[in-house]
User: Fold RNA polymerase Rpb2 domain-containing protein from Nymphaea colorata.
Amino acid sequence: MQEQTVLLGNIPLMNSLGTSIVNGIYRIVINQILQSPGIYYSTGLDHNGISVYTGTIISDWGGRSELEIDRKERIWPV
Assistant:
């Protein structure tokens, strides 16, 4: 068995503007966070400081549905 270093590619350095220059063109890195299909629950506070519960339904195909439950247990589409 022989140990060998293999060069897979170059990673450009980021400049002070938060961009990289590749072949003379400014490039930026955009993060994309994907959520798996399912139901996600979260809680937060409204403008009066009252707890609001939110449920997000993400389907395999198509868009997502978001529902909000207020303190009177009413369900609102968001």
In short: The beta strands are 20-22, 25-27, 38-45, 51-58, 64-69, 75-77.
